Amino acid sequence: MRTCYTGEVSREQLDQTVTLFGWVHRRRDHGGVIFIDLRDRAGLAQVVVDPDNVEAFATAERIRNEYCLRITGLVRLRPEGTSNAELASGEIEILCREIEILNTSVTPPFQLDDDNLSETTRLTHRVLDLRRPQMQQNLMLRYRVSIEVRKYLDSLGFIDIETPMLTKSTPEGARDYLVPSRVNPGEFFALPQSPQLFKQMLMVAGFDRYYQITKCFRDEDLRADRQPEFTQIDCETSFLNEVEIRAIFEGMLRHVFSAVQGVELPAAFPTMTWEEAMRRFGSDKPDLRVKLEFVDVSDLMSDVDFKVFSAPANDPACRVVALRVPGGAAMPRSEIDAYTKFVGIYGAKGLAYIKVNDAASVPEGLQSPIVKNIHTQALTQLIERTGAQSGDLIFFGADKTKVVNDAIGALRVRIGHSDFGKEHGLFEAGWQPLWVIDFPMFEYDEQEGRYFAAHHPFTSPKDGHEELLETEPARALAKAYDIVLNGWEIGGGSVRIHRADVQSKVFQALNIGADEAREKFGFLLDALQYGAPPHGGVAFGLDRLVTMMAGAESIRDVIAFPKTQRAQDLLTHAPSSVDEKQLRELHIRLRSPEVK
Amino acid sequence: MRTCYTGEVSREQLDQTVTLFGWVHRRRDHGGVIFIDLRDRAGLAQVVVDPDNVEAFATAERIRNEYCLRITGLVRLRPEGTSNAELASGEIEILCREIEILNTSVTPPFQLDDDNLSETTRLTHRVLDLRRPQMQQNLMLRYRVSIEVRKYLDSLGFIDIETPMLTKSTPEGARDYLVPSRVNPGEFFALPQSPQLFKQMLMVAGFDRYYQITKCFRDEDLRADRQPEFTQIDCETSFLNEVEIRAIFEGMLRHVFSAVQGVELPAAFPTMTWEEAMRRFGSDKPDLRVKLEFVDVSDLMSDVDFKVFSAPANDPACRVVALRVPGGAAMPRSEIDAYTKFVGIYGAKGLAYIKVNDAASVPEGLQSPIVKNIHTQALTQLIERTGAQSGDLIFFGADKTKVVNDAIGALRVRIGHSDFGKEHGLFEAGWQPLWVIDFPMFEYDEQEGRYFAAHHPFTSPKDGHEELLETEPARALAKAYDIVLNGWEIGGGSVRIHRADVQSKVFQALNIGADEAREKFGFLLDALQYGAPPHGGVAFGLDRLVTMMAGAESIRDVIAFPKTQRAQDLLTHAPSSVDEKQLRELHIRLRSPEVK
């Protein structure tokens, strides 16, 4: 039947007769001849219908965009000077012998090559939107990534084991999607936020190496690039330590990038402690492509006359940092003003800066209203410590540590990605993977006045930190690691707790009482009692990873049928109201029947 | 670290030092030496701890069943006469040099090799149950099947595209699992009963070949071997006809059986129309291993004195069939009585039979109370048509067609699988695949007084049957096919409707009005307007397929964490009650708060 995909016809089939299936991408009459660009998932080919072929020509005259065709014809070279280097089939054309219209099409609501469609239009007409070559390539790429992940994990003895979608609700962390039970009135399943506990139980059951590429669900307010259902590459292994686990999974990324895109990632990914990442970049997922970093200057500013600096410099809950921008003195005032506004989003009350006109003469060579309030010794040391050169700009952050990290961290990335940053060598293109390790076990929530698990409550403390769980939880570090790529956390994991007594201590530190722990996680505590092996793992966000590899703007561009930010499917109109009969069977009723 | 899996140590490592991880399957003292059977996912190995090794021996003395260990030792041959041919590692043992207890275990609630555990015990302690070698093998087999499916489909250009789990409820067929929406009050998602419409839309979008191994959901009362969530190998392709599609997917089964179990299925699967299957076996999923078949005798019995036969023989809604059992005259009376009771389950009011003592002398050679009421000509033709020989038994079914098909169809299988059947060559072991094709488009529901789709409403009628949709829907046949293996339907599919006008006609025949069709399936009707390609596909039930390949008794034996027949997870205690706060956020309340 089909000889090959339309987009794959090439010189190799020269003078051969081929049969192709595809859609009319464009049709044009030119000098009495009809040209059809026929499209399929592999690309385009040019079909020429000559008026000598009366029957085919008559059919071709009826053809409109997006008609579905079968075409048989002879592969020949395009006339000299008309070949198209952008197409795989650009050197050849197909002289049509026979056309069959397999299906007609009404006029599409938009041109497939229109790049300025609103997202609402695209999602409402998703079937047509998916015909666009870019979307076809994105989903093909997604498939290649997932199949290469499988090949790699298979070669290392990981086996795919399916875990349930109808699970128990354990409200902790994000909000669950609930599913009312018909058979058990008043009870509910929850869709899984991750297969975490099931994969740990598979390790206790002795499966040794597990993986799954699976849907997870979080009913959260959708930020820019989140989906209610998302896909996780979920992995777990027994009997390996942190370093061994990381080696396996950075190997996976190397394999995938190499096999799918021919890109060679570094042979060993750099590793950085969480503490260092926060200190140098104000972020636990630093974009290492940006060649700027924080310099702590609290000690220098503790006795200056400038309260904005000296107050936080003397407060252990605060930090004062400098961000040196090489060549930044040339930055236009308007850009600096824009950055001042930008850091406000993150809670910064202003954005102090110093222009370094002449690094050799302090303070005269420094230009800034704040210079006069900072004594010369501090300024001299500032220049020295930041390594500032003449022509540089130094930004400052001075506030609560979190505000400084968020604001100056975001500023750092913003400058790096700006035209200015790219022109001044502050941005190095390419793939920059990084392991961030040694995360704290807990984060303290001021509002709720208690600790929360920084990773999740099943994460093992670092060796020697077990005692801190009781004495100084804030200082306890975890065997947790995130894999960061170009400033995005694309995966994370940890060595898990495999001893029931340690697990109980962590629950205590989290203020989860023995009864509550048993009620929610009794099955895990039970499982740990039966010779649970040391184990750990990782989970990657497939949507995000593919988005980055595709160079797409949104994860919605690598998901076939995504939801909008209001969690709706514009194509099928889900969610929707349902029959009263259905609700009755599920033993529920709507809270306010009028609402709609 | 680990040299290899415990179950893989063999002669090849003789005289080498190995490091193994695993669980204590058994420990025994014998002549002052401690023997440990160490177990992992690959099997068992025997570890010998000599009292000379004081430290290891002291540790070994503390060891109990299901402790998790690391063991280092020397591989040596077992003493002559003590090797175990049942184990891969049966020729060798490991002389222990070092033991580390990685985790202790409390005493398990049952012995792992106890084969008489109740299902409640097994599912409550699923983590331990999964440690049993049989369960480990079942889930490994399941994995091998799924990965070989992927390899095969990948080689043919099928790509895995994920479809949504949060979809629109379209009550038609089975009951949906619903998910209340928080963001859109009063509205609900449904978990998908299958990705049917999404995969069709992917074909319209031009992806050409799609597959997915994915969870589907049906909130039905659970029969013996159903699960609320089950796994489907879901496939769809464009531009192929029925025969081509079947060829691809029987090739998939051949590949999987060959690659996973070394079993060669037939080079071409037999094909049988639905009409023939019902006529010869009373079933659309005949078990061809059973060498018995129906013989229609309505015409012979239309004028006999025996009302039980003559009445249905003259009623077009009924049939009269004979089932000849070679050698059946030797069947003990008690067995025949049991069968009489058995067919009652299917609505048969009795089970007439004739013993053929001497096939050459009719009617004297025939033994049965009914013989005297059937004239000799009918009896003679009966013997001739059934090919009955002396020593055979002939059973009869005479009733509404459905009752005869169900009752005598079940009887046929029952006899074939009985000891009698196996001893008398009525059962041929092995794998007997079969395509059943040409299904009717519709089934008439007497109670509701309307037609239902036999497959689903998106199935294409056979060429030339489009007109019957309006004139004689009962006679319209579909391009639908089921793949049957040893009497189980393991998959099914169809060529789909790719033209909006045909789809509308089918909706009409199903009494789905234009408004309702648009409301429920508008997105499909829209999609079909834009040059939808001819397409079709198939879906396999992975759980059932693996159950059969594993020789397991229940699909629950090939699912890691299944639900009970009351749709409960006994391990994690799902479903469960949830917080009032959660319900409030979802805009629902319980119908009767007391119910629990």
TrEMBL record, chains A, B:
Cellular location(s): Cytoplasm
Alphabetical GO biological process terms: aspartyl-tRNA aminoacylation
Site (Important for tRNA non-discrimination): 30, 81
One MF term in the entry's GO annotations: aspartate-tRNA ligase activity
Keyword field: Aminoacyl-tRNA synthetase, ATP-binding, Cytoplasm, Ligase, Nucleotide-binding, Protein biosynthesis
Principal EC category: ligase
Residues that bind L-aspartate: 172, 218, 455, 496
Reaction equations catalysed: tRNA(Asx) + L-aspartate + ATP = L-aspartyl-tRNA(Asx) + AMP + diphosphate
InterPro entries: Aa-tRNA-synt_II, aa-tRNA-synth_II, aa-tRNA-synth_II/BPL/LPL, Asp-tRNA-ligase_1, Asp-tRNA-ligase_1_N, Asp/Asn-tRNA-synth_IIb, AspRS_core, GAD-like_sf
Domain Aminoacyl-transfer RNA synthetases class-II family profile span(s) in chain numbering: 149-562
Highest taxon listed in the record's lineage: Bacteria
Enzyme Commission code: 6.1.1.23
Region annotation (Aspartate) ranges: 196-199
Task performed by this protein: Aspartyl-tRNA synthetase with relaxed tRNA specificity since it is able to aspartylate not only its cognate tRNA(Asp) but also tRNA(Asn). Reaction proceeds in two steps: L-aspartate is first activated by ATP to form Asp-AMP and then transferred to the acceptor end of tRNA(Asp/Asn).
Subunit structure: Homodimer.
NCBIfam families: aspS_bact, PRK00476.1
Family, per entry: Belongs to the class-II aminoacyl-tRNA synthetase family. Type 1 subfamily.
Name listed for the protein in its UniProt record: Aspartate--tRNA(Asp/Asn) ligase
Species this chain originates from: Pusillimonas noertemannii
